[in-house]
């Protein structure tokens, strides 16, 4: 029997993210769309994923960040944000944790694009260096 229509399982993560942006037909959709464009500019090899019942996720050798939308904020949560240098002080949320850091963007706030792209590139570099370090670790012989 043929199914009519598609389910979320049938759609690519990129298409689901595009749908989410379109559904948010206000400043949140515009902001999430702009964030997505900046992420892709910062790392053309980024992989888009759709996780946790509807959260856009961007990865490169591991999760870089998520893009969550709430009533009053669009939140970018960086998976290893606590390990990143943030000279432009973009992180303004989840500052007490040992691993993650987040950027809350409110309606009308301007995104510091060069600083955000630099932060994304630093997160990619951190993930890539961690993968290389694991691959380069010598194997111990059993005694």
Question: Could you characterize what this model shows?
Answer:
The chain starts with 12 loop residues before the first helix and ends in a 7-residue tail after the last helix. It has one domain: Aspartate Aminotransferase, domain 1 (Alpha-Beta Complex). 36% of the residues lie in helices and 19% in strands. The chain contains three helices and five strands. The protein is of the alpha+beta class. It is globular. A five-stranded antiparallel beta sheet has the order 1-2-3-4-5. A hairpin with a 4-residue loop joins strand 3 and strand 4.
| Rg result | 17 Å
What is the CATH first-level class name? Alpha Beta
Distance between the ends: 59 Å
| DSSP summary, beta strand count | 5
Low-confidence stretches: none
Shape: globular
Portion of residues within helices: 25-40%
Briefly note the CATH topology name: Aspartate Aminotransferase, domain 1
Key phrases:
19% strand, globular, alpha+beta, 143 residues, Aspartate Aminotransferase, domain 1, 5 strands, five-stranded antiparallel β-sheet
Short description:
It contains three helices and five strands; from the N terminus they run ααβββββα. The protein is an alpha+beta fold. It starts with 12 loop residues before the first helix and ends in a 7-residue tail after the last helix.
